[in-house]
């Protein structure tokens, strides 16, 4: 009988025995995976079939000098025993097989331990080369037949084999101590990651999550005339400060470009200078940079901007136009010349987001200066309409004195056709700017050119997207918008939940105010209300509903409706606080109401961010009777702070304030459908009645408003869809 050394060691199935091999698809290189075969090489049991090395607990096992190497006998003695066919050969074979059983049993315990620890990162995929080796190994498996047992060589290893198995060999009662197997000393109970430094525990391995944007990560440049907290006159500044951060959280590389109106602390000079010609005059600009919350903020500095720190849109029409021409010319070249973090954005996979008429020239310049000349071929532009009424023409102080219906017809922002020569474009682009209206005839309009040339157009709510297609809401541009409806959509704004959160608001941390949450709403808001009443000199009365208004004092915001309803309001057991600036006649109305009703009315002519936050936290009711409101942010802030809104159902107000249903206890506030003082009084009266007589319903209104997700995250996802659409648009 031949020596056992000349026979294959059979441990699993019939003729195959899976062992441990390193998983090459994971970190550490030492992860153990069940695979491979034993095979005979040079009269010695050697593994694995592929010739790979295997590591147990830091010990290297190979066919030579490893755990499975059989102790050599003198060659002649083994041969003689085989020829004699004596019982010694049978005993040796039985002992060796039993020895193998013990060894594999120890393997099994080790593998079970490893499987329990490593299961999150197991991988059983094999390369084509490994699979070929497995096939080759099956060709060398032979059949062993003896009086003890028989095995048929039929290798069946696959990537689905997860654990080594031990075949019951039966009939062998020879006991061999594990210590006699010459295995390296291994403490299986104490085996740990520390003993195998080239492996990584799955629970501790840190893997960066992929960006939410997936494969559509882009370079995004938001260009705006204002950006909070540095410059802000309205909602545009809030959007320019918050939307980019939300896009950055989704994985995009995002930049905001804004004029440098003042000596801001955060931005640092990049020592980059560029010169641009505006209406025949050479102007030099400098670029400043700050990196905040994952966003690059780039400030364009020039003396023409520095004079406007306190009045961004001030000056005459031509001066305002020239400033924005310079701004857009400098902004469109930022990705080429301004390094952020040492690297320029470049013009590949790039999208600009322009905002309102102030930057509507940017899509035009991108087309005329670059894409029409074979440059920036892969850059795209999106134009966002925040307020169609703002089209660069009359100053606010002038427009406020015009009849409101007349303003709708003539478009606030038109200029003479000669203004075209200030934008420094070739004459064949002239028709982009020419717009006709029934009263003034043909005129120059920047917004019209931007709408025509932008790859995509967005406005700030679904309701406003419908309204701007009408003659009443389109301000003369409804025809152009309808023609470009295929690239037009509405996206409701969000709010910056870091700046506007009753739990985190820094303006509520002094002067008797307090931060509060949904759980502490009742006590926290009551404390803020009392602090606000004391600060403004109103009687401190918790039971009295406190009504607040925050916004510009003009007809667009419906302040004239409040003036008409003022006698009714002061006749109620309620208090009114108004914050804002605007038309001089409405400012005087506010001062007069305060003089005549010292115990009920307070007016703050001007604007204060701190006071706006404190009114939102301390007041019970927000009054927002806007004649039109593209989106509106104050109603979102109000609901986040447990303030109940009463609004005119237009634009974004209709989208965001669901009317209260007392029967089903749903909704967030009250709406009225026409801009009339009587409608306002009716809605406000129902609101006051609920406050006085239905406290449970009132608390439900507050809590439902606070529970909403009003962050920018959902809006950023929608903007991302627009950017992707523009990216693949030709």
Automatic annotation (TrEMBL):
The annotated regions of Basic and acidic residues compositional bias extend over 190-201
Query: What is the scientific name of the source organism?
Result: Zingiber officinale
InterPro entries the record matches:
Glyco_trans_1, GS/SS, Starch_synth_cat_dom
Could you tell me which residues belong to the region Disordered? Answer: 64-86, 174-201
Which Pfam family, just one, is annotated for this protein?
Answer: Glyco_transf_5
Positions of the Starch synthase catalytic domain? 219-482
Write out the GO biological process terms: amylopectin biosynthetic process; starch biosynthetic process
Under which EC number(s) is this enzyme classified? Answer: 2.4.1.-
Q: Kindly tell me the pathway this chain contributes to.
A: Glycan biosynthesis; starch biosynthesis
Please give the name of this protein.
Starch synthase, chloroplastic/amyloplastic
Instruction: Enumerate the spans annotated as Glycosyl transferase family domain.
Output: 541-666
The text of the family note is:
Belongs to the glycosyltransferase 1 family. Bacterial/plant glycogen synthase subfamily.
Q: Reaction(s) catalyzed by this protein?
A: [(1->4)-alpha-D-glucosyl](n) + ADP-alpha-D-glucose = [(1->4)-alpha-D-glucosyl](n+1) + ADP + H(+)
Q: Does the keyword Plastid apply?
A: yes
Which top EC class applies here? Answer: transferase
A GO CC term? chloroplast
Which UniProt keywords are given for this protein, alphabetically ordered?
Answer: Amyloplast, Chloroplast, Glycosyltransferase, Plastid, Starch biosynthesis, Transferase, Transit peptide
Q: Which NCBIfam families match?
A: glgA
Q: Where in the cell is it found?
A: Plastid, Chloroplast; Plastid, Amyloplast
């Amino acid at each position: 009988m031949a020596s056992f050394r000349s026979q294959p060691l059979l441990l699993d199935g019939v003729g195959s025995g899976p062992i441990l091999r390193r998983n090459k698809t994971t970190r550490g290189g030492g992860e153990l995976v069940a695979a491979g075969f034993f095979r005979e090489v040079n009269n010695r049991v050697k593994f694995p079939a592929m010739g790979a090395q295997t590591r147990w607990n830091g010990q290297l096992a190979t066919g030579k000098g490893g755990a499975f190497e059989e102790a050599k006998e003198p060659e002649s003695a083994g041969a003689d025993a085989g020829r004699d066919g004596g019982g010694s050969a049978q005993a040796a074979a039985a002992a060796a097989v039993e020895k193998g059983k013990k060894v594999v049993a120890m393997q099994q315990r080790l593998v079970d331990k490893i499987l329990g620890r490593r299961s999150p990162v197991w991988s059983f995929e094999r390369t084509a080369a490994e699979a070929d080796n497995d096939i080759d190994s099956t060709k060398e498996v032979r059949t062993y037949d003896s009086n003890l047992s028989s095995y048929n060589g039929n290798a069946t290893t696959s990537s689905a084999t997860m654990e080594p198995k031990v075949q019951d060999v039966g009939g062998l009662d020879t006991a061999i101590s594990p210590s006699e197997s010459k295995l390296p000393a291994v403490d299986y109970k104490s085996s740990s990651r520390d003993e195998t430094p080239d492996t990584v525990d799955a629970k501790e391995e840190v893997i960066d999550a992929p960006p939410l944007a997936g494969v559509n990560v882009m370079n995004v440049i938001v260009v705006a005339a204002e950006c909070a907290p540095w410059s802000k006159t309205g909602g545009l500044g809030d959007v320019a400060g918050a939307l980019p951060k939300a896009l950055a959280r989704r994985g995009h590389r995002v930049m905001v470009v804004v004029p440098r109106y003042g000596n801001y602390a955060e931005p640092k000079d990049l020592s980059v200078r560029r010169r641009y010609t505006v209406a025949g005059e050479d102007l030099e600009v400098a670029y400043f940079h700050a990196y905040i919350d994952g966003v690059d903020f780039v400030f364009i500095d020039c003396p023409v901007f520095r004079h406007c720190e306190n009045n961004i849109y001030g000056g005459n029409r031509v001066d305002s136009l020239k400033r924005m021409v310079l701004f857009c010319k400098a902004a469109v070249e930022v990705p080429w010349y301004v390094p952020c973090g040492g690297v320029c954005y470049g013009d590949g996979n790039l999208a600009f987001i322009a905002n309102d008429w102030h930057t509507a020239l940017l899509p035009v310049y991108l087309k005329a200066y670059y894409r029409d000349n074979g440059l920036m071929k892969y850059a795209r532009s999106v134009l966002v309409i925040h307020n169609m009424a703002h089209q660069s023409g009359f100053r606010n102080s002038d427009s406020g004195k015009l009849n409101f219906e007349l303003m709708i017809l003539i478009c606030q922002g038109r200029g003479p056709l000669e203004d075209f020569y200030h934008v420094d474009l070739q004459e064949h682009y002239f028709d982009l700017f020419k717009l006709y209206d029934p009263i003034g005839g043909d005129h120059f309009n920047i917004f019209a050119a931007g709408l025509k040339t932008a790859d995509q157009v967005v406005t700030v709510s679904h309701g406003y997207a419908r309204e701007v297609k009408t003659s009443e809401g389109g301000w003369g541009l409804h025809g152009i918008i309808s023609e470009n409806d295929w690239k037009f959509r509405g996206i409701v704004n969000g709010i910056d939940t870091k700046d506007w959160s009753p739990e985190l608001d820094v303006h509520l941390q002094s002067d008797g105010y307090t931060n509060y949450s949904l759980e502490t709403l009742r006590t926290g808001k009551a404390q803020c209300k009392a602090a606000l009443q004391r600060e403004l000199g109103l009687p401190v009365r918790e039971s009295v509903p406190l009504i607040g208004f925050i916004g510009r004092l003009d007809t667009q915001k419906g302040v004239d409706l409040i003036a008409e309803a003022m006698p009714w309001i002061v006749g109620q057991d309620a208090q009114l606080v108004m914050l804002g600036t605007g038309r001089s006649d409405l400012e005087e109305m506010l001062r007069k109401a305060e003089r005549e009703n010292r115990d009920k009315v307070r007016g703050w002519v001007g604007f204060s961010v701190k006071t706006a936050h404190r009114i939102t936290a301390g007041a019970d009711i927000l009054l927002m009777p806007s004649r039109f409101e593209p989106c509106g942010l104050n109603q979102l802030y109000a609901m986040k702070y447990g303030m109940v809104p009463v609004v005119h159902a237009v634009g974004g107000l209709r989208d965001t304030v669901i009317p209260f249903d007392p029967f089903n206890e749903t909704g967030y506030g009250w709406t009225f459908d026409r801009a009339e003082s009587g409608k306002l009084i009716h809605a406000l009266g129902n609101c006051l009645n609920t406050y006085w007589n239905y406290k449970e319903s009132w608390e439900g209104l507050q809590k439902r408003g606070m529970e909403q997700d009003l962050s920018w995250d959902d809006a950023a996802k929608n903007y991302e869809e627009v950017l992707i659409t523009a990216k693949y648009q030709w």
